[in-house]
Amino acid sequence: MKVAAPACRREHKLSVGTSSVNACTVARSTDLPLQESSDEGSVPVGQNESLVVDRTYETWNSGDVSGLQELYAADADAAIPGATVRGRDQVGAPWGAFISAFPDGQLTELLRLDCGTYIVSENNLSGTHTAPLVTPQGEVPATGNHVSVDGVSIFKIENGEIKSEHLYFDQVTFLSQLGLMPPQPTA
């Protein structure tokens, strides 16, 4: 199945080795922003899923935790380092903890692989740690430090909702920037 790219993004095809997905569309943050389609009711395959991820970034950056929860399916799962939550009601806890701890935080998408139902999104979280960060391992008091850390989210979108999200991020850099680990040597 070929996945159509949004009309205003450059289209690059990658082959992936699964039987259910034959190609992905790659879009970098430097590509043109999405624009409204002029064909009413006509959305290319893969674009609906991509729009859900667009809304996720917009909602995260507005700090709207309840709005973010509404983007997830009732039986969704979200996995981040150190925690897995299940169900729409539980998804708000880890995301709300980060939004609360980094109130000026901005989540910026750097690269997207759009494979229809699955979307892989490289991102960067940048913000200042001005409130406690509540984690399953305990509370991290505010450090006042600025962080800029890269990560990757793998979304599974079904019926216009996030069914699953797995987030991976550079924990060593994150903890070092918070002052909780020694700085990492530079090459």
Structure description:
The protein has 187 residues and is an alpha+beta fold. The protein has a domain at 13-30 and 67-177: Nuclear Transport Factor 2, Chain: A. The protein contains four helices and ten strands, in the order ββααββαββββββα. An eight-stranded mixed sheet has the order 1-2-5-6-9-10-3-4. The longest helix has 16 residues, at 47-62.
Write the layout of secondary structure elements.
Layout lengths: L12 E2 L9 E5 L18 H16 L2 H6 L1 E9 L2 E4 L1 H14 L4 E10 L2 E11 L4 E3 L2 E3 L5 E13 L2 E9 L1 H7 L10
Parallel strand pairs: 3-10
Antiparallel strand pairs: 1-2, 2-5, 3-4, 5-6, 6-9, 7-8, 9-10
Q: What top-tier CATH class of the domain at 13-30 and 67-177 fits best? A: Alpha Beta
Compute the separation of the termini in Å.
43 Å
Measured as a percent range, the helix fraction is: 10-25%
Structural class: alpha+beta
- The protein's oligomeric status is single chain
- Give me the count of strands: 10
| SSE ordering | EEHHEEHEEEEEEH
Radius of gyration over C-alpha positions, nearest whole angstrom: 17 Å
CATH topology of the domain at 13-30 and 67-177: Nuclear Transport Factor 2, Chain: A
Features:
187 residues; alpha+beta; Nuclear Transport Factor 2, Chain: A; two-stranded antiparallel sheet
Give a short overview.
The chain has a domain at 13-30 and 67-177: Nuclear Transport Factor 2, Chain: A. It has four helices and ten strands. It has helices at residues 47-62, 65-70, 88-101, 171-177; strands spanning 13-14, 24-28, 72-80, 83-86, 106-115, 118-128, 133-135, 138-140, 146-158, 161-169.
